[in-house]
Design goal:
434 Repressor (Amino-terminal Domain); Rossmann fold; Peripla_BP_I (chains A, B); DNA-binding (chains A, B); alpha/beta; 3 domains; LacI family DNA-binding transcriptional regulator (chains A, B); transcription regulation (chains A, B); DNA-binding; homodimer; six-stranded parallel sheet
Chain lengths: ~350, ~350
DNA sequence: ACATTTTGTGCAAACGTGTGCACAATCTAA
DNA sequence: TTAGATTGTGCACACGTTTGCACAAAATGT
């Protein structure tokens, strides 16, 4: 027994006008006499009438729905970002439908169904759903927004944090502290952010690397999360002869905070090394945990609120924009206590 | 220029049948000859036809959309729970629309709009949106599922973890370790879970409390999160004269893991106290961080997957179920290294 | 062979809205 | 006063589906 909704016909009858008039009373730019509009809205309110979005979507071929795909909620930065996105979208009257990209096959299925809901746009935030999915949406004329992801899609809107400045700052910070043996910790499963940061880090060090002043080592981890960082630190020092200890890196730049925290915990709790006395560590993102007393991680902050804000604005601008947008969000060095002058 | 979708009329024309027939070919229980059905589906596939959910929803007054409201993504347990929910729902072909309950006023607005999308049901997971919202949905004949929340709504489906058994186990664990001065850390902003756990904890200790064998102190914190726990520990020892130190509690039960971690960090990093040597701490939830080497928190695990599974099943069963469901999910004691025998 | 049931398909109405077009009413300008 | 412009409203169709009803064809029973 479904509840009978009050429709525009009801309020039309009540107000002694046609359904068309009722409809037009809710559109700002329609030619309706002030008097009629006021009366109709009055009655509508009184009846608790609300326009049926489903019916409206059918005719306008547009909805207030937005697809939001993310590879699980494992990465803490992804979580705060999504949180901000939800709030901003909600404020704009948009409703995000969350899709999990962990299972690619599953995802492709869901994402096709999603297209049937006339979503206004789709935001792809992390992980790696095959970019063919994005292409599929482009083909259906549904705008695609890529957040911190590689842009193989020319037609997609791109919003990225400034990995170049960030990585350059990381390099400078470690160099200024006197570190000579540097390392970059990154997942072997290439992600856009990680690879990009690594490349810019190396680029910032290029001159000194060429002159032999400093060294740079790539430390691979299995996954770009806490466990990955943890294991990477273990692996790094596992089969290293004591005589070789003096050659291990002292300035560590991690692809993101989560990796950095895992790396630090392994150093401290498993390997008996101190941060920052023995090794300096820099992360990226500034996730909430990074600032807490257990870690006090020096890191590059990318502001999730700014990204969410830019995304919201991007969606708003899409109807009037002709070419896909390219937006770069600034990052900021947050100096805490995980970097100290090199001991040797 | 919107992309022209292929409709059932297209495939009907192509197959030389009527739209009705096409529609029926996709419903399992319709009387359609095997031959026709196969041919139609063949052609539909070939054309890439997909039923328009919007149009279907309009006529069936049902959609594959599900409302999922949560108070931000701050609590780590809420995050893993939501993650599981998303995956399970996605697997069932349902699409969750996420709503943020941080701003109550904003929420009421969004949630009303949501009703217009004919959501199949609404899942309320944490935080405290006024229960009138739930009532509003009940009134609209939209099923409401409350997860780990108080049930002022008789008509709502209730899924709760077993706070009673959990708190009883916590009490037993601390008592068995020889602790006499116990405490419960909970937010002053009452949440259902926190209050419930506190009440059952006290209940489990009732006999020994009455006999004066042990003592129980309530430690309030401003919020039921990391910061709250952190500050609570600071407050507890702030204006306590050294002579009084011996009377402070040694067995601490926290309303949830997040509070427990904050509490522990304050003890260790700000107050110079050791866990578990000086104080024993038990949490609730078993969030991912709790198991990591920095904490090794002994805690009561409530399995997010089990809750999500129960929720999914609940939604599935709703059409055929007559009375609202009441489901309790078991919890399990996870023994790690934050509880030790009482020193004195 | 005929009556009756079963099976398969089409017609048309409904869901609730937006919007082009027509047209009446009011207003403006000479 | 009258022709034309402007304003406000209604009619009717469209969006893409589901589904009750009608009905032809096939199958069944006697």
């Amino acid at each position: 027994m479904t509840h009978k909704n009050i429709t525009s016909a009801d309020v039309a009858r009540m107000a002694g006008v046609s359904r068309s008039t009722v409809s037009r009373c809710f559109k700002a730019d329609s030619r309706i006499s002030k008097k009629t509009r006021e009366r109709v809205i009055e009655i509508a309110d009184q009846l608790g009438y609300q326009v049926n979005k489903i019916a409206r979507s059918m005719i306008t071929r547009q909805s207030d729905l937005v697809g939001l795909v993310s590879a699980g909620l494992h990465d803490p930065f992804a979580v705060v970002l999504i949180n901000q996105l939800i709030q901003k979208l909600q404020k704009m009257g948009l409703h995000p439908i969350l899709l999990d990209a962990s299972n690619t096959q599953q995802l492709e299925l869901s994402i096709k169904k999603l297209a049937q809901y006339q979503v206004r746009s789709i935001i792809i935030t992390s992980g790696s759903p095959s970019s063919s999915i994005g292409a599929e949406f482009i083909r259906l004329n549904i705008p695609v927004i890529l957040l911190n992801r590689a842009g193989q899609l020319d037609a997609a809107h791109l919003i990225n944090c400034d990995n170049k400045t960030g990585s350059t700052l990381a390099a400078k910070t470690l160099l200024d502290a006197g570190h000579r043996r540097l390392a970059f910790v990154n997942s072997i499963n290439s992600t856009y952010s990680g690879n990009s940061r690594g490349a810019f880090f190396e680029q910032a060090l290029a001159l000194k690397l060429a002159s032999g002043e400093i060294s740079l080592q790539n430390i691979p981890c299995r996954s770009s999360d806490y466990q990955g960082g943890f294991q990477a630190a273990l692996d790094l020092f596992a089969n290293r002869p004591p005589s070789d200890q003096s050659r291990s890196p002292t300035g560590i730049y991690c692809a993101n905070d989560n990796v950095a925290l895992g790396f630090m915990d392994a150093l401290r709790h498993e390997l008996g090394l101190r941060v920052p006395e023995d090794l300096s560590v820099i992360g990226f993102d500034d996730i909430p945990l990074a600032g807490q007393p257990a870690y006090r991680l020096t890191t590059l902050r990318q502001c999730p609120e700014a990204i969410a804000e830019a995304t919201a604005k991007c969606i708003q601008d899409i109807p009037s924009s002709t070419s896909p947008q390219r937006i770069t969000i600034p990052v900021k060095l947050i100096t805490r206590h995980s970097v100290a002058p090199a001991a040797n």
